[in-house]
Amino acid sequence: MITNHDYDNRNIFIISIDHNLKCESIIDQNTTGKRYDGFSRTFISEIIDRLGVESSRAQKLQIPITTTTKFTSDTNDDLIYLMFARSLVSKQSKFKEIGFIRFGKRDLYFDDGTSLKHLVNCPSILDFYIRFKRNGYGKILFDLMLKRLSINPKVLAYDRPSYSMLSFLRRHYSLDQPLWQHNHFVIFSNDIFSL
C-alpha cells in the first residue's frame, strides 16, 4: 500500500479539467509551464469517479456528489482541479492522485438575515477532497484554485461543507462564522450578494 510518506510537496502537479474532460493546463513544480495533454478521457474518468466515491465516504454521504457522468452532463461550466504526486519509491506507479476541488457557478437563493432572499449566480465549491490529510496538499490546491480564479474564499458558497472543511476554512482563511442557508450551502459574507 502506498502511503502519504511515499510522496512529498516538491513532486506534485495539478491539472485543470473542464466538463469535456479536457486537461486545460498544468502546474508542475518540477517543470514550470509544462503541459500534459496525454491523459486519456478514460484515465481522467476513472480518477474522478474513484476520488468522488472516496469524498462521499469521507462525508458520510449515500451517493457521490462528483462523478464523471454528473460532471460531463452538467450544463454548467464546472472545473475540477486535480492534484497528483510523483512517487518517491514505487517503480510501478509513476504518480498517484492526491485529491480534487470541484468549482462551478450556481444560481442560488440566499437569505441575508433580514428575511430578504437574493438570487445570486454564485461561485461555489461543490466538492473538495484530499486523500492524505495534514500534509499541506489541501492548502496548496485551494490556494492555486483561488489564484487561478482571482477570487477571495469569503465570497464563495460551499455546498454541504463537512466539519473538516469548515475547520480547514477557519484555520487557513479565518472564515469562522458560517451562515448556513436553506439550500445546504454555507456562505461567510453578505458580500456575496453584490456579485
From TrEMBL:
It comes from the Eukaryota. GO terms for cellular component: microtubule. It holds the Pfam family Acetyltransf_16. One of its GO terms (molecular function) is tubulin N-acetyltransferase activity. InterPro entries: Atat, GNAT_ATAT. Gene3D superfamilies: 3.40.630.30. PANTHER family: ALPHA-TUBULIN N-ACETYLTRANSFERASE 1. This is Alpha-tubulin N-acetyltransferase 1. It comes from Dermatophagoides pteronyssinus (European house dust mite). The lineage of its organism: Eukaryota, Metazoa, Ecdysozoa, Arthropoda, Chelicerata. The gene is ATAT1.
